[in-house]
Design goal:
By secondary structure, the chain is an alpha/beta fold. Helices cover 41% and strands 15% of the residues. It has one domain: Aldolase class I (TIM Barrel), CATH 3.20.20.
């Protein structure tokens, strides 16, 4: 079971493609740490009873701007069958105390990096952010080596018109840095359509990406680095580039994946919280949590979400496949 939780919408970057760009004037939210711990413990009880492992993954905004994160993670990391994950921009991962805590308590860390120095810094609206990410990778690798920890180090790349020409070179550079895994997303247009218009992948771009990925996977694999993707994932990207809808009739909602947003709504994915979301305040027992798949199926039958007619959920299409 994967439980992905957006714990804060605060961020210190100004990414033109992201809803949580620090320049955007919308309200910022953060979750109640007591409720996070309560739900996490319920989820552990449920997955232990089912014989499933549980990966609890923090998302933002920037998760490390949420003050309770490290103390709460230290407590949760001790629970049986629970592994912790986080996606971060890396700006706080050069603080030695933070690095030690993360390497001790987390099973995997994903850092965001999109291209060469000047391009990455421009896209993220944060001068020096490439250097910070590089320093964070080095610090994490050094701390991992010193402690013999098994934390996986992953880099995620947003692929768009400006970054695509640099994608293969970036992957090779990341292999030299010593990362374990590389993932990528195509640029999405839901958050910032004004940015998307000029940077979305064309069909030619998507075809070029699909052509280079298999050979790049083999090359990186020989160097001990896993480039994640699947044929289905590349088809999803190609379909988006030509505005072709890919409906999903049954994603088995809530069975293997749950998303909780900063407002405390649990849903089958990050795109269906408004229509299918259940307030976590209503989840008082393990039975309540275990009933979510049934509730989501009923909700889909009664009121199908329009987004399911063109499913954008990367995990469904095999983003993390080898």
């Amino acid at each position: 079971m994967i439980l992905l939780w957006r714990i804060t919408t605060r961020c210190n970057f100004a990414c033109g493609f992201c809803a949580y760009d620090k320049r955007v004037g919308s309200a910022r939210y953060a979750v109640d740490p007591g409720e996070v711990e309560r739900i996490a413990r319920l989820a552990v009880q449920m997955t232990q009873a089912n014989g499933q492992p549980l990966l609890l993954s923090w998302l933002g905004g920037e998760p490390l701007l949420w003050p309770p994160l490290l103390d709460l993670s230290a407590r949760l990391a001790r629970l049986p069958g629970l592994a912790l994950s986080m996606t971060s921009n890396g700006t706080r991962l050069t603080d030695p105390a933070v690095v030690r805590a993360v390497v001790r308590d987390f099973a995997e860390i994903t850092l965001s990096l999109d291209g060469p120095v000047d391009l990455h810094d421009r896209l993220r609206g944060a001068p020096g952010s490439f250097a910070q990410a590089r320093a964070a990778v080095a610090a994490l690798i050094a701390a991992r080596r010193a402690s013999a920890a098994a934390v996986k180090l992953r880099i995620n790349v947003v692929v768009m018109r400006d970054t695509l020409p640099h994608f293969a070179g970036l992957c090779r550079m990341l292999a030299e840095w010593g990362v374990d895994e590389i993932t990528f997303n195509q640029l999405g247009g839901r958050d910032r359509p004004e940015f998307f218009a000029g940077q979305r992948l064309s069909l030619t771009d998507a075809s070029r990406l699909a052509a280079q990925v298999p050979a790049l996977q083999a090359e990186l694999g020989n160097r001990g680095v896993r480039l994640c993707s699947s044929p289905a994932y590349l088809r999803r990207i190609a379909a988006s580039s030509r505005d072709e809808a890919l409906p999903v009739a049954d994603c088995r909602p809530g069975e293997d994946f749950l998303f909780i947003d900063e407002l405390g709504r649990v849903a089958p994915c990050s795109f269906t919280g408004v229509q299918y979301g259940v307030p976590i305040a209503e989840l008082r027992t393990v039975s309540d949590l275990a009933a979510l798949p049934r509730l989501f199926r009923q909700a889909r039958l009664a009121n199908p979400a329009s987004v399911c007619q063109d499913c954008p959920s990367t995990q469904y299409f095999g983003k993390f496949a080898a």
